[in-house]
Protein 1
Amino acid sequence: MSTMEHQYSENVVEKLSSEPKYFWKRFIIFLVILGLVIWGNTGSNFNGITEKGMNVAKAIVSGITHPETLLLFNLTSKGIPMLLLETISIAFLGTLIGAILAIPFAFLSATNIVPKWVSIIFRSITMLIRTIPALVWALIWIRVTGPGAFCGVVTQSIASIGMVSKMYITAIENLDTGVLEALDACGCNLFEKIRVGIIPQLSASFISTAIYRFDINLKDATILGIVGAGGIGFPLTDAIANARWNRVGAFVICLVLLVIVIEWISTQIRARLAHGRK
């Protein structure tokens, strides 16, 4: 070994030996996590699968592999095409309204736009909205609007405000203020600064966030239908309750295909927005 290689290896050993030792810290963290896992498992008692449960599982698999095809081509209000269209409409309108309502909340919550006390108030409101699950919002609004698709739209609009406004706030607080200062120097008024300096910076982020929320709302629309908020959720629950597994299989297959298609489309749109392609 040459002198240079020997010196290099000594430097490596010296560097490694001078690094801080985290063994005990990591060991304690491991013990804490292990203790939490053990404590969490004490509340879940698995007594095995009963014979009845096994029969139900076989029936579910049989229903998925042998779906009720008549539902796929039933164009009435009880057919899968119309129920899926209603589910998509609820998710789309809920996302659109929620995304629009989130804009003023976001601007009034951004610390670089409004005074800090105003920001704290509106951040607290959006935090409160995020705290309440969408299913709870549905149970609340169904008492006001009654069951149906309108309840689903209102629920998803309110539930969307919390998450969407949080993402909007991040985008607003990351604005390039140099552009606004340049527009000020050019003598632009407030409307011109918003149109030229703010909207171009925020539009891609806002649209991407709205599309991401639409993905979430599309999945939530099925769950909200269980409590009567429109969409495919209630017929699916009814089929499960009556053990009509062939019908359940048709619902599940169509939902999976719908989610895959919507996910692919939204991913393509977000990728184009991220890379500035049209």
Note: The domain at 79-275 is CATH 1.10.3720.10 (MetI-like fold).
Protein 2
Amino acid sequence: MRQAIHIFRKDLRHCWPYIAAVVGLTAIRACQASLDMPEPQSYRLYTNGFVIACLMALAWWLAIGAAIHGESLVGERQFWTTRPYSWKSLLSAKLLFIAAFLAVPLLISDCIILLASGFNPLDLIPGLLSRQCWFLAFLVLPFVVAMLTRAPQQLALAGILFLLVSYVALNELRSHSTPFLGIVNPEPAWIDAAAPWLAPALALPLIVWQYARRRTVPVLVLAIVCFGLAPALADRWIRFHWSGSPQEDPRYAKVGVRLDADPAEAKPAGTDWQSRYLSGIPVKSSGWPRDLMTRRLLTVDPVWPGRGVVVSSQAVPDSSSRISTASDGRDWLWFSTYDMTLKAEAWGHPARVDVMVNMELDLFERKLSATIHPGRAWTYVPGFGNVKFVEVLGGGYPLCRTALQPADSGWTYSLRDTDNGITMDAAWSVQLFDGPVSPYWFPTIPVNSHAGRFVLLTANPTTGGTTAGFAPVHHDPSQPLIFTAKHQVAKLSRVLIIPKVQLPSLPTRHR
């Protein structure tokens, strides 16, 4: 142990510039992440944070390279080989260097950022320890590259090659995981969780072998195999044994939309030209709570038996097609028979056609609510995170922060007055999408922040639709707000057939 401390102190003296760079960049990142965003989704702030994160990753690589190259394992003419250095003491010293000057500063930075964001680090100890494990897994790659090189130039070149190879290989293996919400793959579910840990698990035996025996060439060959060929071979094996295609999760098999009345009940929306060809029919959702489901029309196309379907060239239906809730509480599906007639013109103007409606259903769970007082400190929303309303010139915006949630996505939240009334009867909502953590990219902050510049949905009394635009929240600072959050768990596709829809006879001037 005394020998390991001696080597550790020597590394401290020789590598102090790299240590200073790591500590300085970590402190800058902690100070920046502890501040509120000056305005919603500031591009400048995002760019600065990304640059500092890249500089921190570069500083970690260079610091590890400098410490390991102090007693290079490549070659036979190093000074330390003539001294009674134990490989166990040497390896312990390098691990102690990483823990003291890379892991501990990051842990302190995490605690500072959590406190500034309204979280208590003592309540998040398991998450902090898990984050430290992710960090050490991220540092395994530069450790392996540094112990197989003898100079910074070799470290840089080999590091880029190893990083590219491992990134491509692990991404290929992770491609077997579920790509869409609500869709499951018949391949094994452990792939998505195990693939990111494949590189560090294979690298640890190589590190011990190289320090114990200094067999650079065999270790280099095995490192290339482990970081490049092993994931590719595992990918081929999985593809061979699990050749099925992605399937919908059986938990959502009963979720759907059906007609809530006979098609004969379809009725026009009005008498003016803009709405006289707008036909509506009640529909009913099933299999999921209505307040935790949103429906969006993708396409609305005519179908004629024996002739097939006219596929829409647009990615979304026209503005008149929509689903709305009537005064009787039922959901109504509205579509334009004028457009149906134009699409079916090539069929010889049929009197009736079936209408195929392609819908996208978003399913949510864990609906959470909390009262937010503008101008005050963070409000904790159990199961979600901390929220505050920040006042700025011309309005305000909510600042949401979730802690230690590396792969969470699909949070949607809305904001309303306590009396459920907002100017122009608008509702604001945004979504949080956070990138996954992996050993080839590590986030430098433990908190995911999102400032909401809301989508303003304004009712249009002429067409019955809505108009979208971006705007800050204009609100009386003395009045509290109701914050509601829900988490998306699935995105499904459903097809609804409306049989024998009567098509109008269009006047010549409208063709």
Note: The first strand starts at residue 183 and ends at 184.
Protein 3
Amino acid sequence: MAALSSIKNNVYLRIVAINLIIFFLSAPLLILYGPFKNIRSSVVGAIMTSRHPHYITWLLSDQEIQAIAKEAGGAGNVRQDIFSFAKSNDAKLHLTNIKSNRFHGYLLEVPDPSRVKVATARDLQEKGDTVSMIALNNNAIAAINAGGFYDPEGTGVGRLPYGVIVQNGKFIIGGDINEQVPFVGFTKAGSLVAGNYTAKEMRNMNVAEGVTFGPPLIVNGKKMITSGDGGWGVAPRTAIGQRKDGTVLLLVIDGRQPGYSIGATLLDVQNILYEQGAYIAANLDGGSSATLFYNGNVVNKPCDMLGERMIPTAFVIK
């Protein structure tokens, strides 16, 4: 009887093992080519915006990836109306906890947008710095990570920024770019700009500070993601917005930490900033880079195993 029972157990274990093997082999195909559009766009978006996009690019063509991204919703490149406002004399910053059943984050309100500047790592193009180091090197009271960078080896050294970097009205990189590139930054008057622009268009708009990233989430008071979740999956997020009175909103959402914070979609971030009164808002580099420094400390919990990730650029509050 014992031998018969042992045989039955072995058969059962083999069946379970075979089913698990079949599941793991078929799951990627079911996700990528099955009927579940929301799951597909979230998974593809999360991988494409991580440090390991090659996990998807060898399975799907560029055309297929673009088609999946469109399924996630979005209104494309909508030109914004640059609005004006009275300069605020309020020097106080206000930090708020942001919580849901899936994520935990922070929102920092900056009443005077003229205090928001772009700062870079000391050895730009050689290696990055952490957000806190960039803040301390610039005597800043607060800072968030800003633009994107290439990380071909997945080492996280933050040394290859792309697109444009504008600082004090001057192009640190990208001043000769003729095609439109994603841009998030501020005019000399303190108005937040978010969208796709050429370097010439940025100069014509009197852009003073900014980096390449996106996409825009709110433009002219209207939500840009009108269906789906935005197509970038669930991850740590950093975003920036501005109310019509000029107040700048800096948002960081933690993620990839089960039991604490899984992360947010672009739709989540859009809705948070919209509820906070943002008239214009855009996504910034997220993932392991998502960091908020305030009053001498990193207030969120970056998901990188080493703590803060090395990055090339930050928005700092002087």
Note: The two ends are 79 Å apart (CA to CA).
Protein 4
Amino acid sequence: MNAIIPIDVLIIGGGPAGLAAALAAKAAGADDILILERENELGGILRQCIHTGFGLHIFKEELTGPEYAARYIAEVHAQGIPSQCDTMVIDITSDRLVTCVSAAHGLQRFQAGAIVLAMGCRERPRGALGIPGARSSGIYSAGTAQRFVNLDGYLPGRRVVILGSGDIGLIMARRLTFAGIKVEAVVELMPYSSGLKRNIVQCLDDFDIPLMLSHTVTAIHGKGRLTGVTISKVDADLSPIPGSERHIPCDTLLLSVGLIPENELSRNAGVDLDATTGGPVVDNRLQTSVPGIFACGNVLHVHDLVDHVSVEAAEAGRQAALAAVGRSLVAAESAVAVRAGDGVRGIVPQRINSETLTTTPVKLMFRPSSVRRNAVLVVEADGVPVHRVKKRILTPGEMVELSIKPDFFAAAKPVRELCIRCENS
């Protein structure tokens, strides 16, 4: 039986979240830190994101994904923070015992003072969509196609339809166009895009690629290689409308239909998961329901910008270091519940420490459940409105940040629950 290796802060995932968490943990006083990464290099998904648009908030300049990652990796090395790549974590227990395996080190077990979950997310596959048709070749997730083109140097096809208007799909529409591939259309089930407005303009409008809202793929054709798809318009209940079918010849279908936080390990550790975000339930210190286990980045909830991931991860790393070095693990139950009201989905954090509520500003992040114009966000403490914020436009494709200030509750009695809801102005 392998010896158990003690460590202060163990970070699972070497992408942007894990790198930022490691640096912050080091700055907060943790000396014994280790990053575990299953890929053969640090950097995570950023390695294949060769487009620009990263770093505007953190570095005040526009970088590609690899450039953004390289800056964090260089600083991790400069700080002497060790990492193990090609290492797969296979189990985490509620008492922070981590088991992993790698070719270089074999089976290892670590007893961590604190753990930061930074495993990122994965793409929703075809099997989750239930589209009828043969299992033709030429059907990829948008991220898989991005890896083929940007890292491996392969083109997925010559005529492409993209299902879903998530940011990866929008960016790949432009990338494939640059490579000489004809993008026939981007087809979106909802009456609005799930991507950032800037990506719709820069990746579709600038190249005359049609965005077909309130449409979906209803059939896949081709037994060996994909030969085409049938798309249909959908009604208000998102059901295909008979007679609206249209056949589009193509040899490739990319799926950009949502991301799912990678939380199998979190579940093994007994971490409570949020049914809406798919990620852990956390407090405002980003601690999960299991004391000493923290979560950040896309494993917690899917972000729009990597800069926001880095900021959030830095706080998770700092808090993990404080917990590990000081062993100040506070029970998650001593907190104010945060609830999503009408028009709001997927609030993070889901709990706020009671003392923090009246002493320190707390940032809440969430998405509106639909497109709204001239809306008002209302913060309620135990049913009593304490703050209102006007928003000119809200869209599910863009995360909303709301700062909860201590003076909102200066005259309030102890709060048991906060509710954030959206109403028309």
Note: The chain has eight helices and 27 strands.
